[in-house]
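Troubleshooting: if your tokenizer reports a length mismatch, compare your output against this known-good record of 396 residues.
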Amino acid sequence: MPKVKVFMLGRFEIVANGTEVIKSLGSSKKRIVLLEYLILNRDKPILMKDLFEVLWPGENSTNPESALKTLVSRLRATLSDYSPDLSDCIITERGGYRWNPALDCEIDVFSFEAACNDVLRAASLTPEVRAQAATLMTLYAGELLPNSDMDAWVVARSVFLHNMYLKAVQHYIVLLKGEDAHDEIAQVCRLALDVDAFDATLNLELMTALLKIGRSSEALAQYNHATDLHYNQLGIQPPEGMLEFYKKLIKIDNASKTDIDSIRAELCADDTRSGAFVCEYVIFKDIYQLHMRNLSRLGTTMFIALITISSMGDKPVEPLMLDKLMRLLLSALQNNLRRGDTISRYNSTQYAVLLPSVSYETGRIPLERVKKAFYKMYSNPSFVVSYRLAPIAADE
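Known-good structure output:
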């Protein structure tokens, strides 16, 4: 076992012979930053002028070398008093300072990078590759140096490590696919989504794996969770691939229903639901295309409406509150539009609605009714519902 262990992913800790030593530095931010920078750049000595820029960015000093020497001296003394194993952890070399490469030390960042590289180079699944994949997923306990994440030198490296983690995990999933290890793929995806819940590839891989092992209800739950995150946290539509996956879910769910009587019975049962039809946006687009084919043939018209929730003064709405408001608005829409109308979530603050066989005036009537129903459920004047209504021509 190494005498010294350094943890930089998810936190910054130095453990010497089982004892955590960073607490001994107290609230000295500069001493901590000095340690972080030297450890993260352990492969080379850092010139004094470069260290001064990191520690005192934008500041001028008549004697920067003296200020840095004093800081290093105090840091060395504190670490040496606290643990003899750290007495020579910072060495002077070629006009600068360096984390001692001869120190019996294990640093999670570099162990993580080595494990990632081993997985990325792997062409097949072996016990060694599985072990390295488990290692990298265990070591990546969070973003690099989260308490220093505003420093430019941390941000670039943090983004690099995050992307490296995703690439290694995604490559490992490819290897698992070659073995049809769908249960393990689902487990890996769930762990990786704790790191990056918005990654479209991981979400799709998880949903696909769940379908492969017959857990379609869990796949649908994951789909709903992922799309809600995009709408409510990012304020955007989910990626097209994720929306298209919804069709696959539907097809698989209905694949075994080959008996026409059972299909007819199911359709009739579903047809008893009151209110407008609510669907995912990918289905909404298909319904739109179907209506468009009928417009000229039947001589009818169709309008599309965009209904929006906004706050007074155009201030962003807090995500939990926005989720509540959008649920209330959906209820008002579903209960106050016709059964032949179609509703879909368009983005974080808007629903799109297809209104067949209406004019501008007759289309406004149910939309005004929706507004009144919403305000009856939630009358806070800080939030308003507005809508735009526009016709769709058959030749568009």
